[in-house]
Structures are given as structure tokens and as C-alpha cells.
UniProtKB/TrEMBL annotation:
Domain of life: Eukaryota
One Gene Ontology molecular-function label: ceramide kinase activity
Sequence ranges of Basic and acidic residues compositional bias: 471-482
Gene Ontology cellular component terms for the protein in this record: membrane
InterPro entries associated with the record: ATP-NAD_kinase_N, CERK_C, CERK_PH, Diacylglycerol_kinase_cat_dom, Lipid_Phosphate_FormReg, NAD/diacylglycerol_kinase_sf
Listed Pfam families: CERK_C, DAGK_cat, PH_CERK
Taxonomic source organism: Salarias fasciatus
GO biological process annotation, one example: ceramide metabolic process
Full protein name: Ceramide kinase-like
PROSITE patterns: DAGK
Region feature Disordered, mapped onto this chain: 470-491
Ranges of residues in domain DAGKc: 122-272
Amino acid sequence: METDLCLESSLWVGNKRHRAVLTGWHFKWTEVDKKNRDKKTVSVPVSEVVGVEEGRVEILPRKSAEDTDKDFTVFYVKRSSSGGSYGLLWRLGRIQFSCPSRALRDQWTKQLRTALKTHSPLRPHKLLVFINPFGGKGKGRQIYHSLVAPLFELAGISCHVIVTERANQARDHLLKKDLAGFDGVVCVGGDGMFSELLHGLIGRTQQEAGLCENDPAVTLQPCPLHIGIIPAGSTDCVCYATVGVVDPVTSALHIIIGDSQPLDVCSVHHASALVRYSVSMVGYGFYGDVLAESEKHRWMGPLRYDYSVRFVQCFCTVVYLSNRSYAGIVEYLPADPLFSSPRDKTRCLSGCSVCSRSTERLFPQSSESGSLYSSHFSQLSADSEGEWVSVEGRFRCVSLTCMSSSCARSPLGLSPSAHLADGTGDLILVWDTHPLAFLKFLHRHTSTQDQFDLPFVEVHRVKAVRFSLPKNRDEEGQEEARGASVGTDEEERGYVDAIGRVDSQQHLADGTAGRDQTGKQKTAAPFLCGLCCRKPPSESVWNCDGEILPFTEILCRIHGQLVRLYARGIEDGAAIDSCSQEIDESTARCSRY
Ligand SMILES: Nc1ncnc2c1ncn2[C@@H]1O[C@H](COP(=O)(O)OP(=O)(O)OP(=O)(O)O)[C@@H](O)[C@H]1O
């Protein structure tokens, strides 16, 4: 129960008397009838008050202000169902109060502003905003100026806005220009723009810390600036996975109130050099092939965005590519199974306890920002090398994701129980199987059916992954062309490499996926049709957050909570509904609001 009462008085909304109460953490107002009985209460956490203005003020659709000396207007976050998406839409709530005297009005505005400063320490004052004028449907500028800028102005945030003129301009700016005075960086665009900010900020932070990004064993320094995403792209997966909806106003309000969501980042290396950072998916096999195939259709120009063309194209591509499998060696460093598991059926939602415990584990003495990494933390230390697990065989796809990677078409995502900020990623291995079985696996991503509950699919929670090609892959390629089963000598002997990694066969002892009963890995009988009877290539490509990587043999390492977004994870709609901001007297004791 809150005891730190700051102010309480009668206020009027129109001609209705309300009892308004400001405690340390909440501002609430209750309509009272003529007999002094409470009717409806609205309660808003102080941290979700967007702004307080003297007079009668309106912001949207356009700004208007009437400077009356006994009135004040409070703007706050108001939630509504998103009608389909997993998360909740945030809207700007507005309430206009009248006081009996100017002195009381001044007291209310002063106390509310003081409470805001005290309870929202991470609210940004100055932001650097990059708008991609060509992202998505090319509406980035319009979205920013009509929906977002008025909200930032209301909240007193000053913005330096740059409309990009070329790809990588935002990344280069962050790497080279003076960033002093900025609290955060915002992109108005899609996942490609977010990726530019990610690379720019991480690179800049390591440069300043004198750390080498190329060395996967180096513990990178977390970025001090927050990243905000105003979704205006054609793919807004990072926004969806961290907010739960793709909506510019919702995202702008998260930025304004200074929400802070840490995010794990995967660094991808090849031959001792950093290739890219990823937050969403690094995928080989099917996901790489789909991206490579879609790149081929760039010649179609805008026609490739036509829905009917896309549908036919998509269907043919999936059928065509679902027949391919690739030989590879996957080595992975498992995460501690005591903390969580990819099959534990939990969802990483706002206030996730797994991620909070990870924060304590990763940064034992952490304050909100500051020097976050413990010097003891080194996931790739010599101690943990012995825990590596290795598997070898033919895969339909190999993917690693640092988050659920949910999106509008796949509301639960690639790995529904993955966490945003627990310092791990989920490695999904889909062994070679019949194309129809693989299509079943793919289809399950669009429903609530468990895509991991299939005999040819494995999922592991990991801290690092290495992928390499088998040394005798040319022979394999020839055998594959003849449609014969492949069982390499190494598989029959059991694979133990020079640094003593665990034999994969042992690890998969219970699984029959991709193997026959003698333990040899088997190749599914080829599925023949007019579309896919061509000899498939012996190597696929890596799809890293929508970009094709130029290398096949890579090492990925997950860096726990390397960046922070202005977000709070997906809010549990059911919990918020049962604890609504507008509370009847019967439910007025709800502790959350
Ligand atoms: N002014 C510009 N001209 C050309 N390309 C740009 C410009 N500004 C940014 N870009 C690049 O455009 C790419 C796509 O941008 P963005 O992510 O905003 O839109 P998108 O429609 O979601 O695209 P994607 O399908 O790649 O996600 C980014 O990788 C970014 O580097």
C-alpha cells in the first residue's frame, strides 16, 4: 500500500467533481457523485504521464492551447487492444482538470512534474533521429512529422533529425560524429535501419573502449545510448518482438517515458573477423535459400510487391526450396539448463523474470547503466571450451535466434520461449527429412502448434555456435546427386575433435532424426517434381537478419544485454485487461494500477 501521499484535492472534469490523489508512484482521479460516493476511478502510474500543461491544451490532430488560469491538462499513456497482435496499442490519453483556484492549479502542475522527474529517470531529453525516406511504403517522413514529432514536442524532447540520403549513412554517422548530449538514437524505418543503428552504436562503443570487435572472445562493452524504433519499414520484426505491435504512436510513447529493454546481440565472425551483428535470426539452408531466391526477383521491381504475384512466387519458392538439405558440422556451447529451456513453454513478456535474473547474473553490481559487465564474465573462456557439443549431418536448416522472432505472420515466432535479454540464443536444427514433413514444420510457425515436437527437429539454448562444412563434402555431393544414403566415416567413428568436444552421437542417442536405425545419418528419399528435379547446390548461404553473408563457415557468439531499446517487452494483454486503468469501485483495490 502506498503511503507517500503528495497531494489530494477535489478537481473538476467538466461539471463532474473528482477526488484526485497523487502518491509517489500513481496519479488517480475518482468521480464522486452528489452523495460523495465513488464512481469510476482512473489510475495512471506517474512514470506513464507523458506531460502536464497549464490551460486547456490539445495536441492531436493539431495543437491548440487556451491559457485559462485555473485549468491544467494531463497527457498519459492509455492502452487498448491491438486487435490481432500479441501486444497492446498505446495511445495518448488526455484529461482536462479545473481547480477552484490558480494557486491549487500551480501546486498540481508543480507536484506532477516533480513526480515525473523522480520516477522516470531514463526519460530522454535529446534524441538523434534518422528517417529513411524510402523504407517500407516510403512514408517515414510523414509518419514522423504527423504522428511522432508532436508527441516528442509535448514531452519536451529536443530532436536532431537527419533524413538519410544513402544506405549506411546512419551507421557511419554514429561511428564518426560527435554524439555528446544525446540520450538516445531513433530510427524511422524497418529492420535494415535498426541494423544500421545497431552496428553504428556497438562499433562506436567498442572503439571508445579500445576493444576489438573482431575477437569473438572479447567481452564487448554495452552501449550507453538507448535505441528507439519508430516502425516504418516493410519488415519491422525487431519492433514487433520487443513491443508486441507495429505502431508508430505506441513506439513513440515508449521512447518518451524512457522505457528500457535490454537486448542480447549475436556477433557473427569468420576467420577471426567480425562479419555482422544480429538480434533476430542467423539461418542457413532453407532461410538462406529463400533470401537468395528473393534477391533474384529484384529485377521484377515493384511488381514483386504485388500480392497475387507474391503469393504464387512464395508458394513456388517454398515448395522448390523445401527439397534441399545441406551437409554441415554444427558445434554449440549450451547455456545453463537450470535457468531456462527453449521447450519450457514460457513467454518472454514485459518484466520477464528469466531476463531479470540474467541481469543480476551478468551484472552483479549493476545500476541502471554504468559499467555493466563483470570482469569475471567470459562465455568463451578456456573453462567453458570443454562443454562444446558437436553434431554433424545433413540439415534442412540451421538457425540461431536471440529472440522469439515473432512477427505478424508468425505470432509465436521461430522459438516461442526464447528470451530477449538472458544472454542466450536458441539453436534450431532441422535434420534432413521428407519435404512434406518439412512443410509441416514450416506451417506450424503460423499456428500455435509446437514446431519443435517433430522427430527431425532439435532446439538447444546456447551461448555460442560454430558452423563448418564437412571435409569430404565433394564426395558427399556426388553421392547426393545419385540420391544415395550418406554415412561418413567420421559419423561411424564418432566425432571428437582436437579440443576434446563431446561426441554428437552420444548427445543425440535418443533421437532418430536424420538417422537410420544403425545410427547412420540418412538422406530422405528425393521428392521429385517438375519444380525441383534440378541438382541442388551443395552449399547454402547464411541469412543474417535479412542480409546474405559472404561466408559459410562462421562462429556466432551471444553477447548478453549489449544494447538497450526504448521498449519494455511484450505486455501481457490478459493481465493488463484484468487490471484495467479504468477501474470500477468493486475492483478499485487492484494493486497494479
Ligand atoms: N536514403 C537511403 N537510400 C537508400 N537506402 C537507404 C537509405 N536510407 C537507408 N537505406 C537502407 O535501406 C535499407 C532498408 O531500409 P528499412 O529497413 O528502413 O526499410 P524496409 O522497407 O524495412 O527494408 P527491409 O525490407 O530491408 O527491412 C536499409 O538497410 C538501409 O541501410
